[in-house]
Specification:
The chain is of the alpha/beta class. It has five helices and eight strands, in the order H-E-E-E-E-H-H-E-H-E-H-E-E.
Length: 197
């Protein structure tokens, strides 16, 4: 193995280790429901798409409630159909049952995209501070992803994690774009850096 490939392999492992650490933090400390490390998404402009370092998922509890109501409607529709089949109720019940059935099936099938919200997390394990250009690049990838007709996940926000902190331009740019930033403190714990929004 050449020295160049050894360095590339070490960088890859260093980045992946940090991303796994962030993923663990998202579920254990920030209580996100699920995380995925290094999924790929397509953009409108980019043919190859983009690799998201960490994708964190949080379920919308209100959406879960609506899904449960849809299941109750589905069961009610089935009961009404059986009652109609045995002449317990009139023909009005079959119309109501069919409306409930079609509506509940449609919602249950597409509800996953409504009840889950995602956070796109970029991770930098650099020796130097994260720069504005790093955060700008994340915003451009996100904008390209949102312009794609086939958006896979309902990504509602961006986060940035850095081992070495951020320079002042990066902090200001993150603030202007609503990006939540974390960095590692001296005690190796993650600390939210831009607490003013």
């Amino acid at each position: 193995m050449t020295k160049k490939s050894e360095l590339a392999k070490a960088r890859y492992k260093k980045g992946l280790d940090f991303e796994n650490e962030v993923a663990k933090y998202m579920t254990e400390v920030l209580k996100y429901d699920d995380v995925e490390v290094r999924p790929r998404v397509s953009g409108k402009i980019s043919d190859r798409g983009y690799e998201i370092d960490v994708l964190a998922k949080i379920n919308d509890r209100g959406g879960d409630t609506i899904k449960k109501i849809a299941i109750v409607f589905f069961v009610t529709a089935i009961v009404l159909i059986f009652w109609w089949a045995f002449d317990i109720v009139g023909e009005w019940a079959i119309i109501i049952a069919l409306v409930l059935l079609v509506g509940s099936i449609a919602y249950v099938l597409i509800s996953k995209s409504f009840v889950a919200k995602y956070i796109w997390i970029e991770c930098k394990n650099l020796k130097s501070k994260t720069k504005r250009s790093h955060i700008f690049e994340l915003t451009q990838k996100y904008k390209d992803y949102k312009q794609n007709k086939y958006v896979k996940w309902n990504i509602i926000n961006l986060m940035f994690f850095s081992v070495s902190g951020y320079d002042s331009d990066a902090k200001e740019f993150a603030k202007e774009n609503g990006i939540i930033c974390y960095e590692k403190a001296d005690n190796e714990e993650f600390v939210k850096t831009n607490i003013y929004f």
